[in-house]
């Protein structure tokens, strides 16, 4: 029995944010048991000029303020995304704002971009950058709730953090900041991306990191087509599909299923995979996609890859299954690739699309 198998049930008896804070501290202080990194060559990829030892990443939302990056890489992740980071510190929405649905392997949250702000995260990333880190670190940026000039907000955050990031993600898909998803419309999104790109280029004269866009899983076909057109027009380097959903599947059983906020975990898998497959088709397989939503096994990760994802991310499954899930997924994914005759992940991307 690993340590999480013993302590996990105790953590899940605590209020969710309290349990999360304790987990981050354990990771930061090196108290969490480490898992050997996955080094199977079939899982390696070179995307956006970045080497990924394996395709399994930690989604934004877990380490919002870059507190425990070293400890997270010791859990076997191939890459880690911190954030969402807002320009100024903000507390987010009122508590309670995180609700477990264990019967569904799901969570509902309405955190609302609680963030220590750019200055704090920039200093932490600069320290990581100076001493070296075990793998690629992405930075997810958003806007402060009380600010109406979204392009300026995103450009400020991205420009400040880009020098210390392996990639930057624009998050316009959280359902918990009023009006944020409206920024996914073609005109607003194109202007916002142009401003962010300009700020990143100015901050990184020797070459800015790749720019990714994180989109919602609740998009209609017309909205997805608009986003694809903007991705091509603005030369966006990659997509993350998707964020949490405001929908509520009828099969949900958890007592908190009617709470407001974004739903993540197992019930999101089919919806997010459908949007992933659609975005892969709309972008003609030319734009690398990170698949997120409901991944809890090697089979789930493999399905995302065959639907069009080059990389995958998880978060909610860690709450219920612990960090040992990461090397388990990597090992199973490698076995599935070989069983189907693929020599690399790249060969399997979009096989079902």
Automatic annotation (TrEMBL):
Major place of residence: membrane
Comment on bound cofactor: Binds 1 FMN per subunit.
Keywords: Cell membrane, Flavoprotein, FMN, Membrane, Oxidoreductase, Pyrimidine biosynthesis
Entry binding sites for FMN: 60-64, 84, 140, 171, 214, 242, 265, 294, 315-316
Single annotated GO MF: dihydroorotate dehydrogenase (quinone) activity
Cofactor(s) required, per the database record: FMN
Membrane-related topology note: Peripheral membrane protein
Location(s), subcellular: Cell membrane; Membrane
EC number: 1.3.5.2
Active site: 174
Catalysed reaction equations from the record: (S)-dihydroorotate + a quinone = orotate + a quinol
Domain (Dihydroorotate dehydrogenase catalytic): residue spans on this chain: 43-337
Residues bound to substrate: 64, 109-113, 171, 176, 243-244
Cellular component, GO annotation: cytoplasm; plasma membrane
Family matches, as CDD domains: DHOD_2_like
A biological-process GO annotation: 'de novo' UMP biosynthetic process
InterPro entries, sorted: Aldolase_TIM (IPR013785), DHO_dehydrogenase (IPR050074), Dihydroorotate_DH_1_2 (IPR012135), Dihydroorotate_DH_2 (IPR005719), Dihydroorotate_DH_cat (IPR005720), Dihydroorotate_DH_CS (IPR001295)
Pathway(s) it belongs to: Pyrimidine metabolism; UMP biosynthesis via de novo pathway; orotate from (S)-dihydroorotate (quinone route): step 1/1
Family membership noted in the UniProt record: Belongs to the dihydroorotate dehydrogenase family. Type 2 subfamily.
Subunit: Monomer.
Function according to Swiss-Prot or TrEMBL: Catalyzes the conversion of dihydroorotate to orotate with quinone as electron acceptor.
Protein name as annotated: Dihydroorotate dehydrogenase (quinone)
Species of the source: Limimonas halophila
